[in-house]
Amino acid sequence: MADVVKFDKQPSETLKAGKKFSLEKVDPGATPGYAGDKAAGKELLSDQDSKLTRLQEQLFAESRTGGKKRVLLVLQAMDTAGKGGIVKHVMGQMDPQGVQLKSFKAPTPEEQSYDFLWRIEKEVPAAGMVGVFDRSHYEDVLIHRVHRWADAAELEHRYRAINEFEARQASAGAKIVKVMLHLSRDEQQERLLARLEDPAKRWKYSGNDLKERAFWDDYMDAYQAAFEQTSSEIAPWHVVPANKKWYARIAVQQLLLEALEGLALEWPVPDLDVDTESELVRRS
């Protein structure tokens, strides 16, 4: 059997939106850092499933004996970019009891009466958990910038608040993995048409998708601003080309694996005499 094709180097470095990063220079159809094709990518995804499962179990197990570590995956993207597929194919390999998934919709009147981070703070992952935000606190600097619901001063305030919020989470033991799935405008059009043509997917279509699509360039500018203002050492942004769904899935899987491996997880050692307990079990 041929060796599984792996990434050339750590995706966290290949895909990081660091200094002087330019979103417009990223090809949504590319597969940066990965030389394999679709078949090889699917093989890699499957090959790494057991490792992801084991690491997540270790994370959860550590918390049972006082461990504070946790992971927060933030997924942001334009409509149809594949966030749902990421959750299904990558997060689906994890034990549900160790995953906290939250999909943020438009804020309710109650949520609007508080600071924009109020509803976010309530959903951060507990110790030992892998938290997933399907959309997140970044909606409050993306859509608000695009539609001019917040002025420049308010946006600056929110960028600072986001940085402080993420710093607090990191100090509490969270490893934050922020991912923007970068889809091209043409690919989105094809996916929207595919939804309309497939009765099993038609329910996913919303006329609101077209309304937001009309502001495509404004959204790209808003994402660029968000990267510049909130991509930090403790919580860097990663831009994953998403025209090829298989690539986006293995890229996010690798980012999660890196995050979990970086936590130096260990199986907890119970305070018990194994031989004695084994004998008691045999006699039971």
Give a written overview of the molecule.
The protein has 284 residues and is an alpha/beta fold. The protein contains twelve helices and five strands. It has helices spanning 11-14, 38-63, 83-89, 109-112, 118-121, 139-146, 152-171, 185-197, 207-213, 216-230, 245-261, 274-283; strands spanning 70-77, 99-103, 130-134, 174-182, 237-241. It has a five-stranded parallel β-sheet, with helices on both faces. Helix 2 (38-63) runs parallel beside helix 11, helix 6 (139-146) runs antiparallel to helix 7 (152-171) and helix 6 crosses helix 10 (216-230). The longest helix is centred in the first third of the chain and has 26 residues, at 38-63. The chain is globular and about 70 Å long. The mean pLDDT is 95.
Q: Give unreliable regions as ranges.
A: none
Tell me the distance between the termini: 47 Å
What is the radius of gyration computed over CA atoms, rounded to a whole number of angstroms?
21 Å
Strand order of the largest sheet: 2-3-1-4-5
Shape field: globular
Fraction of residues in β-strands: 5-15%
Structural class: alpha/beta
Give the SSE order as H and E letters: HHEHEHHEHHEHHHEHH
Number of H/I helices: 12
DSSP E strands, number = 5
Name the assembly state. Answer: single chain
- Average pLDDT, rounded to a whole number, is 95
The largest pleated sheet is described as:
5 strands, parallel
